[in-house]
Amino acid sequence: MRSRSKYRWFVVGVFFAFMLLHQADKLLIGPLTTPIMETFQINEAQMGAVFTGALIVGAILYPLWGVLYDRYARAKLLALASLIWGATTWLSAIAPTYPAFLATRASTGVDDSSYPGLHSLISDYFGPQVRGKIYGLLQLTAPLGYMLGMVLSLLLSDVVGWRGVFYITGALGVLLAIVIFFGVREPPRGRSEPELADLEEIGIYRFDWKIARGLFRKRSLVLLFIQGFFGVFPWNVITYWFFRYLETERGYSSDAVLTTMVVAVAVLASGYFIGGAAGDFLFKRTLRGRLFVSTTAVLLGAVLIFIAMNVPVDNRGLFLVMLSITALFIPFAAPNVISTVYDVTLPEVRSTALAIQMFIESAGAALAPLLAGLIAVRSSLKDAILIICVSAWVLCFIFFAVTAYLVPRDINTLRGQMRRRAEQEMAAQASRSA
C-alpha cells in the first residue's frame, strides 16, 4: 500500500513536469512574437492568424481526445500527446516560410487539448476527498509555465534565436513522452472510488455512447458546462489586455508592468492550490462544499476587481495590493469545477465529460479578447475589463449557486452506481472462489 501511495506521487510529479513545460512551450510564442514577425516579414494580422490557428485546432480536437481517452489506455495516449508536442514544435522551428509556419504552428494545437485524459487518470489514483488539492497543484503549471516561458525567451532567444528555443522545448516534449510511456502505469478506471478502493480486482469499464449521452441529462453538469463558457472570460481578458491597460491607462513603464504582473501571477498561482484545498475541506462536510467555494470566489472576484480598477492611478502601492488580493480568488473555482465534474460522472466517461467542459470553455476563451477590444474602442480598456469581468463573475455566481442546490442528487446517484458495481464485483469474486 505504501509503495502504491509513493508511486502515485511520482505520477503527479511526471504530470506536473509535463504540464509545466507544455504550458511554457505553448506560451513562448508571446514573448517571441517580435523576432518571429521580423523573420517572416509579417504584420500583426498575419501573426494573429498564427495564434488563432492553434486555438481553433485545439478546440476542435477536445471531443476527439476525450472519447479516445475513455476508450483506450490514457497513459499511452498522453505519451503520444507529448511526442506530438515535441514533433510539431520542431516542425515550427524549421518552417522556412510564413505559410509553412502558420500550418506547423496550428498543428501544435493537436496536443493542447490532451489534458482531459491526464485529469481522468489522476482521478483513479486519488479519491474524491483529496482531488481538489491535486488538481489545484497541477493547475499551478499555467501561471508558472507562463513565467517560465517568459524567462526562457528572455535568456535564450538572443543566444540561440527563436528557432533554437523551439528546438529545446520540442526536445523536452520528446523526453517526457519517453518518461510517460515507460514510467506511468494505467490504473483501472474507478480504482480510487471509495466503494471500489478495497477490492483486490475490479472490472474493466470502457466508454459507452449511451452513458456519454447521459451526461447531458445531469442538470448540475449541464450548468457547469454553461458556466464554463462565461467563466473563462475574465482570465482571457486579463491575459491579453491587462499589460496594455497598465501601459496606456495607468502609465506604467515596461519594468513596472513586469514587476506588477510577476507579483500578481505569483499570488494567482497559489490560489489554485488554496482553492482546491478549501473545496476538499468543505466537501468532506457537505456535498455542496466545492460549489460553496466557487460561488464565494466569483462573488469576491467581482467586488475586488471593481475596487482595484478604481484605485487612483497615482496610488500604485494600493493598486498592487488590491490586484494581488483579487488574483488570489480568480483561480479558486478551477480545481473545484474539475473535481465536481468527476464527482457526478462514471469513471469510463470522465475524459469525455471534461473534454466537453474544456471545449465549451475554449469557445468563451476565443470570444473574450475580441469582445474586450470592441468595448475598449468605444470606451476604454478599464471599462472593457470591468464590464466583462464583473458581468461574467455575476453570471457564474448564479450558475454555481443553482448547481450547488442540484449537485447532491447527482453525486448520490453516482455513489449508488458505484456501490452496485462493488456488489457485483464482490459477487463475481465470490463465485470464482467457489
Say which CATH homologous superfamily of the largest domain is assigned: MFS general substrate transporter like domains
CATH class of the largest domain: Mainly Alpha
H/E element sequence: HHHHHHHHHHHHHHHHH
Helix content: over 70%
Instruction: Assess the beta-strand content as a share of residues.
Output: under 5%
- State the end-to-end CA separation: 27 Å
Uncertain parts:
none
- State mean pLDDT (0 to 100 scale): 88
Description of the molecule:
The chain has two domains: 1-185, MFS general substrate transporter like domains (Growth Hormone, Chain: A, Up-down Bundle); 209-434, Up-down Bundle (Growth Hormone, Chain: A). It has helices spanning 2-27, 33-40, 44-71, 74-94, 98-107, 115-123, 131-139, 141-183, 209-213, 219-231, 233-248, 254-283, 289-309, 316-329, 333-343, 350-378, 381-433. The protein is built from 17 helices and no strands. The model has no long low-confidence stretch (mean pLDDT 88). The longest helix is centred in the C-terminal third of the chain and has 53 residues, at 381-433. It has 434 residues and is mainly α. It is globular and about 75 Å long. Helices cover 80% and strands 0% of the residues.
SSE layout and pairings?
Blueprint: H1 2-27, H2 33-40, H3 44-71, H4 74-94, H5 98-107, H6 115-123, H7 131-139, H8 141-183, H9 209-213, H10 219-231, H11 233-248, H12 254-283, H13 289-309, H14 316-329, H15 333-343, H16 350-378, H17 381-433
Helix pairs in contact: 1-7, 1-8, 3-5, 3-16, 4-5, 4-6, 4-8, 6-16, 7-12, 7-15, 8-12, 10-16, 10-17, 11-16, 11-17, 12-13, 12-14, 12-15, 13-14, 13-15, 13-17, 16-17
